[in-house]
Amino acid sequence: MRKLSIILIVFLTIVLNVMPCAAVSKAVPVDPIFEFSSLPEGENIVHEFVVRNAGDTPLNITDVLPP
């Protein structure tokens, strides 16, 4: 019985040390809403949305698509 307990403890220690943690990156917009004012036809408007990383790993933004 003691031998089985030791084997189980060693196995669990190895498995738990090898398993990756649940660290993730999380994109959080600082100001998620921007109200565009009315513009004359043909005018362009530019606004930068700031995104911060609220996660544990680096945040890589690789593809941005319009809604």
Topology:
Blueprint: H1 2-18, E1 27-29, E2 51-53
Antiparallel strand pairs: 1-2
Give a description of the structure:
The chain contains 1 helix and 2 strands, in the order αββ. The protein has one helix at residues 2-18; strands at residues 27-29, 51-53. The mean pLDDT is 83. The protein has a domain at 23-57. 25% of the residues lie in helices and 9% in strands. It has a two-stranded antiparallel ribbon with strand order 1-2. The radius of gyration is 25 Å and the shape is rod-shaped. With 67 residues, the protein is an alpha+beta fold.
The Rg value, from CA coordinates, equals 25 Å
Strand content: 5-15%
Instruction: Specify the helix fraction band.
Output: 25-40%
Spatially, the strands of the biggest sheet line up as: 1-2
Average predicted confidence as pLDDT: 83
Question: Mind describing the biggest β-sheet?
Answer: 2 strands, antiparallel
- Would you tell me the structural class of the helices and strands? alpha+beta
Number of strands: 2
- Write the element-wise H/E pattern from the N-terminal end onward: HEE
List low-pLDDT spans. none
Coarse morphology: rod-shaped
* Cα end-to-end separation: 61 Å
User: Treating each run of at least 4 consecutive H or I residues as one helix, how many helices?
Assistant: 1
